[in-house]
Amino acid sequence: MSTPTYSVLGTRPIRHDGADKVTGRAIYGADVHLTGMLHGAVLRSPHAHARILRIDTVKAAALPGVKAVITAADFPQGPDRIVDLGEGDTPLSYIRGNVLAIGKVLYRGHAVAAVAATNAHIAEQAAGLIQVEYEVLPCVLTAPDAMREDAPILHEDLETTELGKKSGKVSNVAVHFRHVLGNSEEAFAQADVVVERTFDTATVHQGYIEPHNATALWNEDGRIHVWCSTQGSFVVRDVTACILDVPVQRVRVTPTEIGGGFGGKIPVYIEPVAAMLSKKTGRPVKVLMSRREVFEGTGPTPGSHMTVKMGVDKTGRMIAAQASLAYEAGAYPGAMVGPGGMCVFASYNIANVTIDGYDVVVNKPSTAAYRAPGATNAAFATETVVDEIAEKLGMDPMELRLMNAAKEGTRRADGPKYRRICCVEVIEAMKNHPHYSAPLEGPNRGRGVAVGFWFNAALPSSCTISVNADGSVNLVEGSTDIGGTRTSIAMQAAEVLGIAVERVNPTVVDTDSVGFTGVTGGSRTTFATGYAAYEAAQDVVRQMKERVAKIWEVEASAVNFEKGAFSAGEKSMTFAELSEKLGSTGGPVVGRGAVNPRSAGGSFSGAIADVEVDPETGRVSVLRFTSIQDAGKAIHPSYVEGQMQGGSAQGIGWALNEEYYMSPDGGMMNSSLLDYRMPTALDLPMIDTCIVEVANPNHPFGVRGVGEANIVPPPAALANAIYRAAGVRMNRLPMKPSAIMEAIWAKGN
Amino acid sequence: MPVVFIPALLRPLTGGASQVEAAGETVRALIDNLEAQYPGLRERLVDQGRLRPNVSVAVDGEVSPIGLLESVGPESEVHFVHAISGGSR
Question: Which CATH class is domain A304-456+601-748?
């Protein structure tokens, strides 16, 4: 099949919002100022697990400047129901209970009450005057502890569900699932090499720089307007309407610019609180989180406890695998263990697999998505075991992976067969990359590799494109722009219309102004909203052909459109020339695109890492790092590379330093960016990138999402590199200096 | 006839069978016919007229965005898989 040639796709234009971003003119949530605006503050629980016996707000309300104090009792408490958030069904009671605690607090940092006052200082002072009487309960902080028979129970009504069947017994295990393919027990008996290891990973945060924020105005006519930093304005609209028990029509959400999200800005926390404070006061109210509130009150990604067992024959063919994955959901069910179970062996063709997954509630913040949620934990386990098998077989680790790589037609452990995927191409690109064969000299140095997979999300998206008289177009979309998606979406419209991308004005609008659009998450925005822009542009072309036909007095079907020009026989007219004539040929042309793709097509990613381990301190220095990923079609290669570098940097932080360091009573001891050690530019080498392009048949330009799969392999690649540098197999994240030293000492003993 | 792959946790309802055939031009019709063969199966997959939370259906390898309304061909493979909610839960 010939490779299509494009005019716009694959180029690297300057982003449309670049000037606003670099001059500081872009409007973020904290920049929103409304006349008469009040400032909110949230009181949070000092306990990881406690019953709320009494809340006394009298002193707080009496403080001069305080205009309102609210608790969960101020919100409608209708019957529970399942809420469709457009990307996952969730019981309303869980969301409601997390916004402001009802009856019990389930983690330190759980919101209990909120205040609106004339300035932020008074609001904070007043929050401190709210008196809460607690009955402190024992807490449980890890999945293995929470699964014990004698563990403290978080939810007295929670039973383990196994595909619609409840256990009949109260438990901290919300869900147990099992995937079975073939017969792994019988196959293990045939294996020549079997490796089984147990792994633990710590809770980590997405670490977006901009804290959560929300400003709300509950208007006198009952309409509610919310401005906030979110990955999904329609999610905020729908959840806010549910929690406030008002029709969706009455809620309008304007997404401001966003300073990072990585999945963590999909859940709703303070938007309904700001709205309720506004209702109580009759004035707009702004609520901003501090960094500590972000760490302690929003959703990190789950910690996990995993056992992975794999068996191969003497040639290296993988014949059996088993995994047991227990992920910490935090305070409410919903750990990303489902995707973890679907990704744990996703890179390989294995005929006999058993996977058990457990969604376990613990007294930590309710977890949220984080780049390829659930997959990084699982790949850390699998890819470390694969590396050990390669060592036992005396095989090159890339050869072992290539021999067993999943391909089109491979049946996954959860059942379906893969469509066109790119695991083989990514592994081959890793193997052929100069980094993989470059000499690595010097003591205490080692190289490791790993691969990983993420499904990506599809979800609905909408766009409209209106044509201006000068031949430019206005593109209206509902996807918050996190990674340059205004431009990557505009480029797809420009390609269809045959115009320069600079002639497209992309605008991200509020929820009243565009059709439903799913979250900017799941690596879906360039894929799905780009698809909607493609459809909207095609709609424009169809309508423009009818205008040309009218002018030339020919059938519309006789009009061709190629590279920005309409033609029929000898006649031709450019897109810009026709745009001038729209007013006199029938009026405005507005194209629309609304898509709900069946499947996003997954993406595979690989990492090659060189490290040096200081044997005296355990410090790991990353000397060189290469990220390889399939992009389907890289619309804007710079943004693809940026995603790969960003995901790699976060994966390195997750691997080497980051963790929620918890006290025994459930307090996060490092809830500041000084103590929660994310990597900085000084900690990282230049991250090299290698884009593989295997077209996605589910997208008109072959696009695959690239925002997530790149975070999956780094921890395992680093663990494997550390093994070659220091001789120790790491089975716990983070692989911080103390953990490395403990492993070295244990080996010495 | 479409082939339905039975999730491991539901195989006690199908006498241990991991694959069964069931007629139906949509996922909804197919589940209705499965229920006639294997009573109790529908309740494990469907609640209040929709697929249960955490359950998605994949037809011919692709997860459907419309669930019970998805069309099923005579040669289709149908799987009930764990829903990927990439975000809120």
Answer: alpha beta
- Nearest CA to CA, how far is A627 from chain B (Å)? 23
Spans of all domains in chain A? 18-25+458-595, 32-137+210-259+265-297, 304-456+601-748
The answer to whether B19 faces chain A, any CB pair under 8 Å, is no
DSSP β-bridge partners for residue A254: A227
Residue A268: pLDDT above 60?
Answer: yes
Task: Give A373 to chain B, closest Cα distance, Å.
Answer: 7
**Nearest chain A CA: its distance from B23 CA (Å):** 19
Interval B21-49: pLDDT, tens: 999 999 999 999 999 999 999 999 998 88
**CATH number of the A32-137+210-259+265-297 domain:** 3.90.1170.50
Q: Which residues contact A492 (CB under 8 A, 6 or more apart)?
A: A9, A526, A530, A531, A533, A534, A537, A635, A701
Residues of chain B contacting residue A95, judged by C-beta atoms under 8 Å apart: 88
Contact A232, A520 (CB under 8 A): yes
B residues 22..51 contacting A (CB < 8 A): 43-45, 47-48
Specify whether domain A18-25+458-595 bears CATH 3.30.365.10. Answer: yes
Three-state SS at A692: strand
pTM score, whole prediction: 0.96
Q: What is the pLDDT of residue B87?
A: 33
Q: Which amino acid is at A605?
A: S
**DSSP-H helix ranges across A600-693:** 637-656
pLDDT of residue B54 exceeding 60, the answer is yes
pLDDT band at A81 (very low <50, low <70, confident <90, very high): confident
Closest residue to A175, CB basis, from B10, B54, B87: B54
